[in-house]
Automatic annotation (TrEMBL):
Gene3D superfamilies: P-loop containing nucleotide triphosphate hydrolases. PROSITE patterns: ABC_TRANSPORTER_1 (PS00211), ABC_TRANSPORTER_2 (PS50893). Keywords: ATP-binding, Nucleotide-binding, Transport. Residues 16-258 form the ABC transporter domain. It comes from Solirubrobacter ginsenosidimutans. The keyword Ribonucleoprotein does not apply. The keyword Transport applies. This is ABC transporter ATP-binding protein. InterPro entries: AAA+_ATPase, ABC_transporter-like_ATP-bd, ABC_transporter-like_CS, ABC_transporter_ATP-bind, P-loop_NTPase. GO terms for molecular function: ATP binding; ATP hydrolysis activity.
Amino acid sequence: MSTSIDTGADPTTLGLEVQGVTHEFTRHGNTMTVCENIEFDVRPGEFLSIVGPSGCGKTTLLRIVGGLIKATSGTVMIGDEPVTGPGPDRGFVFQQDSLFPWRTLTANVRFGLEAQGARGMRGDLSRGEWRKESEARAQAAIELVGLKDFANHYPHELSGGMRQRANLARALAIGPRVLLMDEPFSALDAQTREIMQSELLRIWRQNATTVLFITHQIDEAVYLSDRVVVMSARPGRVRDVVDVDLPRPRDLHVKRTPEFVTYTDRIWRQIEQEARQAAMTSTSGG
Ligand SMILES: Nc1ncnc2c1ncn2[C@@H]1O[C@H](COP(=O)(O)OP(=O)(O)OP(=O)(O)O)[C@@H](O)[C@H]1O
């Protein structure tokens, strides 16, 4: 079911495929392999999370998918197109909010659209028509994330949860086919975080976007996702892909069901094992 609010976005959602991605960083002459031969796909409209021990390359992988850094080897496909750099088909939401303090919420949400307009990506629309279109898309995105009454507020007048809603609105306003989220709720208190998780599911249902989500929290990954990719310790590899077969729509009570606990236990055991092995390797000088 989709009751999509019209953000003016291209309604076609795309999947993505990570094909044999390996990434190395070289620092002071030392080369470190961060992730190795990563393969997985995210189906169109799917919500997929990545979890793994700290430092296993989750953020690096997301930045590669976003086209912010180029993989040492391997390819990322969005639909049928290889990723060669950032593009308006991908929206980002990061852990730290990235709102401009001198802009109102509406002006912040319009920012990406203004940038598209300035780059001549207006389709057949004139400059004036694009301005109107941007305004309408921004308003729709702000309404979608539940901030209609705060459209003229500045970031410092918003709570942490509201700022993350605003970041989400900004990412959605450009009409991304894939949404890339890097621990977007980790700076929030536990209660706000839970509210934001269920809000994200509501927004995802309405907007029908493909989501690639990174988190440290296993219960967050299970609650939100259709599938969870579990990565090994560095160099990160895909250790497991867990199909989360819990009915949707999900409310927060699902977290207290035995099925939910079975999923979180399965993932938890694997990450614990990885973290222990990594700790033993580092203490034995390996
Ligand atoms: N620009 C860089 N130059 C050199 N090393 C880097 C760079 N970016 C990340 N690294 C290193 O790559 C490794 C993986 O980092 P990354 O942030 O991708 O891991 P992560 O799984 O997201 O970690 P966490 O869960 O702690 O956020 C880390 O050891 C980090 O220090």
